[in-house]
User: What shape does this take?
Amino acid sequence: MVLNSKLKYIADVARWVVGIVFVFSAAVKMIDPYGMVLKMDEYYAAMGIDWMAALGSVPAVVLIGAEMFMGCALLLGALPRLTAVVVLLFNIFYLLLTLWSAIANPVAECGCFGDVLPMSNWASFGKNVVLTLLSVALYCSPKGRRGVWREVVCALVGVAAIGFTIYSLVALPVVEKFPFGVGVNMVDAIEKEMLAAKEESTVVCRNVATGEEHRFGVEDPTWWDESQWEFVKLESPEEKVRVKATDFALYVGPHDLTLQVLSAPRCRLVCVERLDRLSLRQLTRLRGLIQEFIDHEERVWLVTSSPLREADKLFPAMEFCNMDAVALRALLRAPVGVVTLRGGVIVHKATLP
Assistant: This one.
C-alpha cells in the first residue's frame, strides 16, 4: 500500500510538471511561430532533409497545437492512457534529438522554448532526460478522471493554440522580443547601445615600469600617457542578447546606408529574406506595392539577405540593400513584408503571406 501510494504521488507530480512544461513550450512558440519555423529549417538542413522546408509553417503549427493539447490533457487528467503513451513517445523523440544535437552540435540552440528561454544543446538534453523519466512514471501509473468535458476543453484549447499561431504568422507576433518593435526610435536605440557598450568596456594596460596590469574606463585619461602605460587589450561586456539595435545595418557592398535610411522623413523597407523563395504571387504583389509607394512619392528600399544581383533582376530601377539574415529575421519575424519608418522611428510592420 505504501509503495502504491508513493507511485501515485510520483505520477501526480510527473503529470503536473510535464503538463506545465508542455503548455509553456507551446505558449512561447505561439507568440513567435516564425522563429519555430526557422529552427525546424535548421534541423532539416542539418539532417539532410531540406525538402521538408517546402512544407513551410505547417509542421510548426501542428507541433504547437499538439504540445498545447497534451499539456492541457495532462493538467486536466483527460484521456490518461492515450496521453501518457503519446507524451512518452514525444519525450523519447526529443531525448534522442537533443542527444544528437548535443554531440554533433548542428544548431547553436535547441529552440525548445523559442527565444524566450534560450537553452544550450546539453542543457536541453538534460531537461529531456528528466522529462522522459517523468513520462515513464506517467506511463506506468496513468491517472485521470472521467468526463467528456475534459476532452472537449483540451480540444478547444488545442484548436485555439493553432488559431493563435496562424494569426501570429499572418499578423506578426503580438509580443516583440527584439529591439525592433513598433514605436522604437532606432537612432536613439543605436546611440544608447553604443554609449552603454563604451561605458561598460574596460581598457587593460601594463605599467611600463613595473609590468603590472591595470584596468581603466575607456574615457579615463590616465592610460593615455604612453610613457607610463602600454595598451594590452579592450575588454567588452559579454553579449546578453543575440540581436541588438546596432545590428540594424544596411549595406550596398562596402557602403553603409544605415544613417541615410534612418534620417529619411518617411521611408518603406520592403523586406525579403530570400529572393529565391518568392512565389509569383508574392512577386506580383510586391511590385504593385512598390509602385504604389513610389506613386505617393515615398522613399523605398528593398532589403534582403540575398545577393543584390538577384534583386536587380527581379526589381529593376529601384534602390536595394543588404541586411544580415539574422537581423532581418528579427526585424520583421516573417519571410516577406514591409517596415515603415518615419524619421528613424518604426511606425508600422506588415507581413505579406
Q: What stands out?
A: Residues 243-351 form a domain with the Glutaredoxin fold (CATH 3.40.30.10). The first helix runs from residue 2 to 30. The mean pLDDT is 84. Strands lie at 202-207, 213-217, 229-235, 251-252, 255-256, 267-272, 299-304, 319-322, 336-342, 345-351.
